Amino acid sequence: MWCGGARLLFVVLLSAVSLPAVWAFRVVRVGKGLHRPQSFSRSRTVSARVDGAELFVSSSVVLYGKKKGGGGKKGKGGKDEDESDSGGAQANDAAMQAAKDELKACNDKMKKTMDSLSEQLSGIQAGRASPRLLDKVEVEISEDDGSKYNQPLKFISTITSPDPSTLQVNCYDTRHTVFAEKAIMTQESGMLARNMGDHLIVKLPIMTQERRQELQKKAKTISEECKVSLRTARRDSVDKIKKSEKKKELSEDQSKTFQEDIQKYLDGFIKKVDQETKKKEEEIMKV
């Protein structure tokens, strides 16, 4: 009774094998209690009646690999999961690079803060007179045409130390000597400048115990301000890392690693601040 159906199935199979793909077949016998398949997506269906029953042969193409333009599982928004995974990986790579750049930027900021600390501490008198005590002095120069501009004293003169309590300033242009004198006298350093015509003689204040304690306190204040700047740099960088984590651009572990690296930077620089400050305080208190 199934001879006719068998022949039909053989013909269908033979025609399907000739197609340039691999075919999967489904045979459904529709009889009592069974229902006709509504449709087979992307398939060819052949039917025939055999002894009052319908025989359906469905051949569906199965392609190996990914079709151009999609074919993978669909994720949210109708996008292929493969495409979503690829996009997520690219976003993570970009976020990782941004985090590394932020790490470098944070380190650079902290280094600049340390440079500023060294410069400020060097401007505090301690023991023998040093030309670096005048590093931060800015001189306002007035020209004959009425124009004015500022120049660091160290750029317009040579500064030497003829004895432990004296500095000598020789301006390259002697007309600037009077301007240099004014700039030094307006500093809150206690130094006294005397104009000798072609150069200045600068006397440092006597280092009394009270003066030493005052300078020591100043060094501590500069140190604390430096630490605040370092912590601010740490906080700003950590906030950016956390923002990337919140956006799911970085994983929790990646974010934690970057934050730990930033904390290590801070700990290292804080240690250097304490070391430099302690050294300066010892110089100040040394009689």
Automatic annotation (TrEMBL):
The keyword Signal is annotated on this UniProt entry: yes
GO molecular function (one): ribosomal large subunit binding
Spans through the membrane: none
Pfam families for the chain: RRF (PF01765)
Keyword Cytoplasm: yes
GO CC, alphabetical: mitochondrion
Chain positions covered by the region annotation Disordered: 68-94
Span of the signal peptide: 1-24
Keywords of the record: Cytoplasm, Protein biosynthesis, Signal
Cited SUPFAM superfamilies: Ribosome recycling factor, RRF
Domain Ribosome recycling factor: 117-285
InterPro entries: Ribosome_recyc_fac (IPR002661), Ribosome_recyc_fac_dom (IPR023584), RRF_sf (IPR036191)
Any GO BP: translation
Similarity annotation: Belongs to the RRF family.
Protein name: Ribosome recycling factor domain-containing protein
